[in-house]
Amino acid sequence: MAQSYKSLKEDFVSNLSGGGIWEVNFVTAVAPAAVFLWSTLQASRDLFSNYGILAFLTDCLLNVGAILAATTIYSSSPGILNLLLILPASVLHLIPSTSRARQKRPVHPPPVNGQPVANKAQDELGPLPERPFVTHYRGSMMVVTCLAILAVDFRVFPRRFAKVETWGTSLMDMGVGSFVFSAGLVSARPVLKARAAGTRSSVGASLRAALRHSLPLLVLGFIRLYSVKGLDYAEHVSEYGVHWNFFFTLALLPPFVALIQCLPTWIVSVDMIALLVSCIFQAILDSSSVTAYILTAPRKNLFSQNREGLVSIWGYLSIFLAGQAVGLDILPHPRSRIAKSIFGLRSSRPLLTRLLTWSLWYSLLLFLAISYTTLGLQVSRRLANLPYVLWVSAFNCAQLALFCAVETLVFPGLYTGTDARTESQRCKRATSQVLAAFNKNGLALFLFANLLTGLVNLSTDTLRTGQGRAMATLCAYATTLSIVAVILHRKNISIKM
Asked: Across residues 251-255, what is the average pLDDT?
């Protein structure tokens, strides 16, 4: 009986063909739409500055509940949900504010001999400011990912949103790539800090640091492997392989990235390296029997049993590097003298302009890759091929542009502070605490979400659960994740993995 139920669960997530790219765009547009409404409530009513239970529930309802609704009960009409969020936000933005909407002035040391005391360590604008729109983007991505890994086991979650078998696009296919892209985005921060300090690590030191970062991910990968095998948990073998899982993929990325970063700075153009790696991998797929081997070969030895995970690492490396390239461009402060001296005139262009340029660039390349009049390739998350890399990069740049547009519209003076403390206070006021919490401990919460997902699946017959009970379970799950995330965030606990 148990074996039969396991087979039913595996069949439920196998041999799927996905949906359309534009449907993924409309469903995920709910995230920036929800942040738009949150931002207008904060800017015009100062609703979230005193963060009590009501503020938390409203924050959670908007930035978690809206995403859950978009992927379940509103999955067939995401446009309606987007309108329900955008219309009241637009009205709130246009009408005069009735709140004090005050911004606290920074507390400076008392003057000495009538002259203000300068505290350079605190007051000077640093090269890497807080970016609320990046926090919102990463936090929303984590929310979608954590919700989808449980929702996919219920019938209320459309099959077209689940991972496709080989060729096609879906919401969860995008979720995997977005996780890697966002990791690459924030990996630009230590690179930029090193450049600002004028330091450069040796190859050996970089590899040792990368291996230290990979070790916890390898441990998590083995824990997941033994848990799945030991509990006889349903698994989709063609996703990564017999033993492979996503944690192993994440663990392999840092050493490759470290080697690339050790190249001379005049050689390294990270976005071009990302494209070069992906194009070479695609050429190998097209000009050899590698594609046929990955899709059809018998699983006789350890390599062939895990070929999807081992071979797709090149595509995920390209996605990571593409994210890092965007991070190197958008994270430096446009007004910091340190940033200007290091990163040049490119930092003077508006953020939104740069993000739209990135999005259009990758969208054009994607069109050329999948158009029947040019290359005529198909997107494959299983192979992590060139069209998949371009699709993930174009999508994430567009998402970043949407979040940046919301921030620019609702909080236009965010980066005009004369000192770091004033700017930090403004950025904190413009940031959702729920999304900041998901962003701060993203990988730890993802692991916790996996544990909760396993617990629900072992205790509930998800295939026979009705829509009402499924939604109640998902709401309880989402609320639990949000509470844990916010408690960690409020206590300033950051779990690094």
From this structure: 93
286 Cβ contact list (under 8 Å, min separation 6): none
Q: What CA–CA distance (Å, rounded) separates 381 from 168?
A: 8
DSSP state of 383: T
Q: Residue 97 contacts by C-beta under 8 Å, 6 or more apart in sequence?
A: 43, 44, 45
Confidence of residue 101 (pLDDT cuts 50, 70, 90): very low
End-to-end distance of the chain based on CA atoms, in angstroms?
38
Q: Is the dihedral of CA 384, 387, 391, 393 positive or negative?
A: positive
- Determine the pLDDT at residue 263: 75
CA 244 from centre of chain:
22
Locate tokens 């459309």: which residue?
158
Q: Quote the tokens at residue 114.
A: 């009538």
In the prediction, which pLDDT does 11 show?
85
- Give CA–CA dist 165/173, Å, rounded: 10
CB-based burial label for 93 (10 Å; 0-12, 13-18, 19+): middle
Cα 144 to Cα 83: distance, rounded to the nearest angstrom: 19
Q: Per-residue confidence at 265, pLDDT binned at 50, 70, 90?
A: low
For 37, 45, 87, 99, 183, the CA distances from 96, given in Å and listed in that order, are: 16, 10, 16, 9, 39
Task: Please give the backbone phi and psi of residue 19, each rounded to the nearest 5 degrees, phi first.
Answer: -135, -160
pLDDT of residue 204: 84
What tokens were used for 8?
Answer: 């039913």
pLDDT given at position 495: 87
Q: Please list the helix, strand and coil fractions of the chain in percent, rounded to the nearest 5, in that order.
A: 70, 0, 30
Whole-number mean pLDDT of the chain? 88
Give the predicted TM-score (pTM) of the model: 0.92
Rounded Cα gap, residues 463 and 458, in angstroms? 12
Q: Which residues pair with 112 in a beta bridge?
A: 115
Q: 324, 239, 242: which is closest to 277 by C-alpha?
A: 324
In 3D space, the residue among 378, 398, 403 whose CA is nearest the CA of residue 388 turns out to be 378
pLDDT exceeds 90 at position 394: yes
The Cα–Cα gap between 311 and 325 comes to: 23
Q: What's the mean pLDDT in 4-28?
A: 89
pLDDT beyond 60 at 102: no
How many whole angstroms from its chain centre is CA 184?
9
pLDDT value of position 21: 95
The Cα 305–Cα 241 span in angstroms is 6
Judge contact between 351 and 334, C-beta under 8 A. Answer: yes
pLDDT at 95: 86
- Which amino acid would we find at residue 409? L
Name the residue with tokens 């990571």. Answer: 320
Given a contact cutoff of 8 angstroms between Cβ atoms, the answer to whether 139 and 437 are in contact is yes
59's enclosing H/E stretch is helix 53-60
Of 406-410, 421-425, 466-470, least confident by mean pLDDT is 421-425
Lookup: tokens for 439: 């962003």
